[in-house]
Design brief:
Chain lengths: 217, 212
């Protein structure tokens, strides 16, 4: 039990020390876009650190520093909007396929922008459940281990299938848009030719009547 | 039993150390730059793939710096690229995407930063030849193939998003131009007639032909 806990904690720590990070201002909002099919689980780990001007480094933990995480669905409906601590995990499941926007904003109340004050955000986002489940490794015997691996593979295949269905939907939308453009071009070309001809006829008629009335012709 | 658990744990840790990958899609506003940093050991191979999905001419500047500040990769106005590197120095590597050359089009950029090689689905501890090992090797094969499928799907998803973005832009342009051209047609033709009429209209109240 103890070795299991240590193993899990070590993985957690390692995943943060090796995660990608970027810098942002104190009150700035940074968003990332995830284009995902419906019924997909998204898990995100983040860790935020604040720059300390006294030690010229990033503090390991800043008390009171939190992060607003907002997830917006493609129909502009808010799926998740919560305040987390300086380190946390958030998950959400998409109901509609499309572009989901995940936004991060700190709850820092410092209005004055202290020179050089910035935040460092470590981020790790996983889409679909195709990450290796570390707790599955502590299986008791070989059969169980292979069983768990097979379940993991089945989950991966389901994710692939969902992505393919979503791709099919999008290709249909794309094709409709292209056909619409094609028929638009054709229709406008015909309309403009008709307008040209009718306006030309109107011009000649109008000028002829005008010159006749002016006794020039 | 505890020994086996410990070995499995260690294998899992090594596996976690071996591979890390992050893929993100972000929006680059015009004249903006976004930088990302990753701490890496030396002797590790990393790969950065990026692609512009929509916006403007679908191009972006990108550069990668090693911990000593040396630029190991720099490209301007690229639509997509893939860059691999074996690290020599341990430290923080930075890669940045810049849209500073564009004044009004914001870009949507996808990047995938992979470190090391993906761990195998089963730890390769010993080579036993039993019926269970055949199951294990089948699992490994399926996992490898699924990884290739997922990679290929991501590639096609991005290409489709880019093409759809271009098609929507084209549709918008066609609509606006058609309406604009119709208006211009009307304005120009009516204007021509009025102008000509005004040439032959006398300003004095007395009438008279312009010429005989």
């Amino acid at each position: 039990m103890k070795s299991k806990l240590i193993g899990f904690l070590m993985n957690f720590w390692i995943s943060f020390s090796l995660a990608l990070y970027f810098h942002t201002g104190e009150r700035e909002e940074k968003c990332i876009i995830e284009d995902i099919p419906s019924d997909t689980l998204v898990v995100g780990n983040y860790k935020v650190q604040r720059w300390d001007i006294h030690t010229h480094g990033f503090l390991e933990s800043a008390p009171g520093l939190g992060m607003f995480v907002t997830v917006t669905s493609p129909t502009a409906e808010v799926l998740l909007s919560k305040l987390y601590g300086p380190q946390g995990t958030f998950t959400f499941t998409s109901y509609i396929s499309g572009e989901h926007i995940i936004c991060f904003q700190s709850n820092s109340t410092r209005f004055a922008v202290i020179a050089g004050s910035k935040l460092r955000i470590h981020l790790d986002i996983r889409v679909g459940e195709h990450f290796l489940d570390e707790s599955a490794i502590q299986a008791k015997d070989k059969v169980n281990e292979v069983n768990i691996r097979l379940e993991h593979l089945i989950e991966q295949i389901h994710h692939v299938t969902r992505e393919q269905d979503y791709e099919r939907e999008r290709e249909e939308k794309f094709r409709k848009k292209s056909e619409e453009t094609n028929s638009n071009i054709l229709w406008w070309a015909i309309v403009q030719t008709l307008i040209l001809i009718s306006v030309g006829i109107w011009q000649i008629k109008s000028l002829r009547d005008f010159f006749i009335s002016k006794k020039l012709v | 039993m505890p020994g086996a658990v410990r070995t499995l744990c260690l294998a899992a840790l090594l596996g976690a150390l071996g591979a890390r990958g992050t893929e993100l899609t972000l929006e680059l506003p015009d004249s903006a730059q976004r930088c990302f940093h990753q701490e890496l050991e030396s002797g590790v191979k990393f790969t950065l793939d990026y692609q512009v999905i929509s916006g403007g001419h679908y191009d972006v500047d990108c550069y990668v710096e090693d911990p000593n500040g040396k630029t190991i990769y720099q490209e301007t106005k690229k639509q997509y690229d893939s860059f691999s590197h074996h690290t020599e120095v341990k430290g923080v590597y930075t890669f940045c995407f810049s849209n500073e050359f564009s004044t009004f089009s914001h870009k949507i950029v996808y990047f995938d930063f992979q470190v090391g090689d993906e761990p195998p689905i089963l730890p390769d501890m010993n080579n036993r030849v039993t019926a269970l090992t055949q199951l294990e090797s089948a699992c490994v094969t399926i996992h490898e193939m699924l990884k290739a499928v997922i990679d290929s799907q991501t590639h096609y998803r991005l290409r489709e998003a880019q093409d759809r973005s271009r098609a929507e832009e084209l549709n918008g342009r066609v609509s606006y131009w058609s309406v604009g051209e119709t208006l211009i047609l009307f304005v120009v033709s009516i204007g021509q007639v009025m102008l000509l009429k005004s040439f032959f209209t006398e300003k004095r109240p007395s009438s008279g032909g312009a010429g005989t």
